[in-house]
Amino acid sequence: MVLATFSWPYGGRQVFITGSFTSWTRHYAMTPVDGSPGTFQTLIDLPPGGYQYRFLVDGIWRCDERQPCVSDVYGVVSNWLYITEADAAPPTLQYEPYIIRTMDMDEGTALYTAPSPVQAQLSETDIQVSRSWISRLLSSYTVYDTLPMSSKVVIIDAQMPVKKAFQIMYEEGLFVVPIWDDLRATVIGMLTASDFILILRGLQENVLVLAEEELDNYTVSAWKEVKFQQSSNGPVGMHRRPVIHASDQDSLKDVALKIVQNEISSLPVFKSSLQDTSCMPLLTLACLPGVLKYIFTHYRDAITSLPLLQHPICSIPMGTWLPETGRGNGQQLAILGNNSPLSSALQLLLEGRVSSIPIVDDSGSLIDTYSRSDILALANGDMYAHIQPHQMTMHQALQQVYQANSYINGRSRCHTCFRSTTLREVMEQLSDPAVRRLVIIDAISKHVEGIISLRDVLEFLLQ
């Protein structure tokens, strides 16, 4: 037997280690090292041989990217240690030059996947039990239950110049805002990042013939009228469908279904009864991250124990995958190279019915993602008036986003997972309102395999 030393130097509150030496069934608690803040250590007596192991840090499975790593057939990454008879002294784990790094961790590699040497077969019963439970839970609560004690809702006046409106959206970090009409005393629509893309493309293609001074006075209502005419070819004043909205007494299930079925990102919530008609009826904006965050805050343990959530996402029919993964669902996964023109991204975001595009390097490895909201970075300082989308590369477009939002090389922007990641772990990540989607990558090469969004998850669960 050889006494092996295992160390975790990246901090945390509680750290455990488990591995193939216990058949992944027992967790050893690691002890903080005196005089070395953030370092945890434990000694385990092991017979000679090769072992895989991982660290459980504050409830998240991770591995030490500076140590040797291996990936199994499911894409699960673990650290690797080989012990020989000669290792009479506690071994020093050697540095492995090949680094596996996800885009949203500072140190170590976040695995988000619990060890599971044998994966149970997904059954229709697992699906139906989980769907039924989540459906009942969401039906039991209304939008009013989720309203915070204090919050801010940014509203754009219909008569505001559209140029100024997009600048406000950029400064506030918003990609959708309600449009308020004083004459009707209500919300008449939503101004979105897609509107900005349409205007940008219209200006570039001379569809919108506006001088700079005219653009300064071009109102939100005027733009919405032009957009309506372009989409309907109907006369001015033609009947428009009512704004898709929710009442504060609507159930969370109804709200989620409205968002999913209408393919929108959020919808305004109106107060169901107003005694004072002079009061603004808008209470908040409802969105899918808000729904998931609420139920995860109050029912995390119950949700994460559902049978369906224990399965890896590669075994569940959801998300958009590359055909070569064998998981193709008929929907084309949009991917662009680092040197592709920005105009290609704009076309995909508008016509491909996607909200985010993975950007890859020459070898196909993930660099970052470019989403509809990122285009608003071009509203900063009227940058959009000085660029040509067909000449700007995606690399240059991403640099503009980083500079506008003080990001460093995309850190904390791009969130990833593996095909072996369980649905529970996917939903835990997506319960963070800042995370709208996860790019599915190969654990070693970082090649993009697919993408899974919160909309994909809820659409599947609410069928």
TrEMBL record:
<feature type="domain" description="CBS">
    <location>
        <begin position="410"/>
        <end position="463"/>
    </location>
</feature>
<dbReference type="InterPro" id="IPR050511">
    <property type="entry name" value="AMPK_gamma/SDS23_families"/>
</dbReference>
<keyword id="KW-0129">CBS domain</keyword>
<protein>
    <recommendedName>
        <fullName>CBS domain-containing protein</fullName>
    </recommendedName>
</protein>
<dbReference type="InterPro" id="IPR000644">
    <property type="entry name" value="CBS_dom"/>
</dbReference>
<dbReference type="GO" id="GO:0009507">
    <property type="term" value="C:chloroplast"/>
</dbReference>
<dbReference type="Pfam" id="PF00571">
    <property type="entry name" value="CBS"/>
</dbReference>
<dbReference type="InterPro" id="IPR014756">
    <property type="entry name" value="Ig_E-set"/>
</dbReference>
<feature type="domain" description="CBS">
    <location>
        <begin position="149"/>
        <end position="208"/>
    </location>
</feature>
<feature type="domain" description="CBS">
    <location>
        <begin position="329"/>
        <end position="392"/>
    </location>
</feature>
<dbReference type="InterPro" id="IPR046342">
    <property type="entry name" value="CBS_dom_sf"/>
</dbReference>
<dbReference type="InterPro" id="IPR013783">
    <property type="entry name" value="Ig-like_fold"/>
</dbReference>
<keyword id="KW-0677">Repeat</keyword>
<dbReference type="InterPro" id="IPR032640">
    <property type="entry name" value="AMPK1_CBM"/>
</dbReference>
<dbReference type="Pfam" id="PF16561">
    <property type="entry name" value="AMPK1_CBM"/>
</dbReference>
